[in-house]
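Structure in, sequence out. Go:
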């Protein structure tokens, strides 16, 4: 079985690749796993160091908008898992062009190549942010898409293109829409690694607005297990929400991060709220639970403690990246 993973040098994609190649998922294991990654500021080959010597891994530095390269790499592939994206909301507010190019044009390029190559399964990794914001209750997969940021609008566009390639051409696409991830190897501009690394350095942390925005936090390992279940047994043309059920306001998460690092609230600096900031995300995960037996395994307290420890132990990984990080992030 040959697998193509786009964005496999980023936070979630590299976790997926490390897990696949270390035998964390049921057989069949891939005979070849190709990672296609542009290595933007957010990706680095070093994230694959633990599996770099695996003879099944082939790393290709390239762009998903490069139709010729993508056609070559999808040829003979059984499964595509598509993570590659511009992923940071704050960057999409200051400049959306790369988001449209990579997330929309890049995804269409990949879908077209997969169609022409006759790929057996295409998993499109989308996000719960495509739904917009919800004050009460949770979104099921048939909820209307009302994205509010240029990032989520570009992800909604790619999500709909993936759906259309199934409806129009019969491409065996599955779409996953996951909540906020945390874990090791996350670029230190996103809230958890930004706050942890600032606090480890004795520096203050920026909290947007009133801090009452609610996110559902899921460990990256639980997200990747959900993706793998969908790759193995998801029904073509279907959408699967993935979430953790740990809903926290940003203030609550900040309190837990301060406690984990042993810092006080005087380290918190309120900053002007993000434009168009979604108030609350909440996915209903009944479908993936009922159809595929999905359950998150990592208890939030344990996952957060492990994550804080990882950043404390891996300064050499994040210190150089932090110099390239956006000024605030959540
Ligand atoms: P990330 O920014 O850490 O990684 C993205 C990777 O894509 C990087 O390695 C980057 O080099 C690569 N890339 C970017 N543009 C590319 C291009 N044009 N061609 C090839 N490679 C390119 O992102 P992440 O947090 O790992 O997110 C992965 C996917 O999961 C994204 O599609 C994102 O929308 C989705 N997602 C993320 C979260 C989250 O909480 N982080 C939650 C739900 C869904």
């Amino acid at each position: 079985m040959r697998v193509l993973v786009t964005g496999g040098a980023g936070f979630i994609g590299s976790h997926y690749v490390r897990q696949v190649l270390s035998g964390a998922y049921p057989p069949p294991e891939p005979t070849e796993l190709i990672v296609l990654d542009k290595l933007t500021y957010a990706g680095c080959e070093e994230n694959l160091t633990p599996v770099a010597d695996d003879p099944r891994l082939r790393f290709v530095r390239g762009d998903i908008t490069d139709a010729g390269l993508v056609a070559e790499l999808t040829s003979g592939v059984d499964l595509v898992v598509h993570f590659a994206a511009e992923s940071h909301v704050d960057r999409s507010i200051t400049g959306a062009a790369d988001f449209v190019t990579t997330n929309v044009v890049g995804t269409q390029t990949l879908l077209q190549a997969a169609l022409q190559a006759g790929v057996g399964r295409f998993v499109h990794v989308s996000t719960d942010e495509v739904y917009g914001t919800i004050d009460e209750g949770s979104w099921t997969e048939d909820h209307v898409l009302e994205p509010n940021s240029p990032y989520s609008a570009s992800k909604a566009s790619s999500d709909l293109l993936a759906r259309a390639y199934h409806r129009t051409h019969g491409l065996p696409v599955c779409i996953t829409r996951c909540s906020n991830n945390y874990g090791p190897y996350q670029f230190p501009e996103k809230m958890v690694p930004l706050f942890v690394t600032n606090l480890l350095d004795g520096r203050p942390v920026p909290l947007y607005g009133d801090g009452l925005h609610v996110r559902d936090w899921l460990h990256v390992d639980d997200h990747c297990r959900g993706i793998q279940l969908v790759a193995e047994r998801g029904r073509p043309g279907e959408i699967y929400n993935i979430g953790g059920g740990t809903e926290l306001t940003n203030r609550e998460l900040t309190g837990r991060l301060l406690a984990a690092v042993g810092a006080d609230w005087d380290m918190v600096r309120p900053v002007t709220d993000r434009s168009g900031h979604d108030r609350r995300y909440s996915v209903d995960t009944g479908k993936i639970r009922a159809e595929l037996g999905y359950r998150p395994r990592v208890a939030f307290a344990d996952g957060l403690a492990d994550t804080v420890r990882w950043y404390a132990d891996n300064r050499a990984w994040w210190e150089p990246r932090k110099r390239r990080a956006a000024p605030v992030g959540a």
